[in-house]
Write a structure and sequence with these properties.
5-stranded antiparallel β-sheet, Vitelline Membrane Outer Layer Protein I, subunit A, VMO1 protein, 170 residues, 0% helix, 14 strands, single chain, mainly beta
């Protein structure tokens, strides 16, 4: 099954889904974030999310599932569910469309992931946007990801990068 949230950004297209290897599930996550660029510069905020796949909560497997990520920003350190836990749900922080002349649209600005033991893994904070509601929870675990990405437009248009997220339950 697929879990979603209702507050994703409106721009871009759904990229390819990427799944953890059979028999593994996501127990960690990292975030690709562009820091604020300053006045008159184009911000993109959250550019990508990478799931860390494991078997039995062992983080040493080294396999990741990513879908598409924007070109800007840097990856955070991986955050792991404690006690051999795994991801079961998420919520997004999203700046609603500004729709004003010269406004800088950024869409998704951060994300939080719920672990099976109730622990929350939160991305680097952002002053922009509001948190939506939590997705439904997977009955077992998250094992795949798909992102909605606005492509890089260059100097002619406003870039937003990551807009929305779907997770796959296994």
């Amino acid at each position: 099954s697929v879990i979603t949230v209702s507050n994703g950004g409106p721009w871009g297209d759904w990229a390819w889904p990427e799944m953890c290897p059979k028999g593994s599930y996501a127990s960690g996550v990292s975030f690709k974030v562009e820091v604020p660029q300053g006045v008159m510069e184009d911000d993109t905020a959250l550019n990508g999310i990478r799931l860390y796949c494991s078997r039995g909560g062992d983080p040493s497997g080294g396999y990741t599932a990513e879908s598409q990520s924007g070109r800007w920003g840097h990856w955070s350190e991986a955050r792991w569910c404690p006690h051999r836990g795994h991801l079961v749900g998420f919520e997004l922080q999203v700046q609603a469309p500004q729709r004003r002349l010269l406004s800088d649209e950024v869409a998704a600005t951060s994300a939080r992931f719920a672990c099976s033991d109730g622990h929350i893994l939160e991305g680097p904070g952002s002053a922009w946007g509001q948190w939506g509601g939590w997705s439904p929870q997977c009955s077992k675990a998250v094992c795949g990801i798909q992102t909605r990405q606005d492509p890089a437009w260059g100097l002619k248009r406003d870039d937003t990068a990551l807009n929305d997220l779907r997770l796959f339950c296994c």
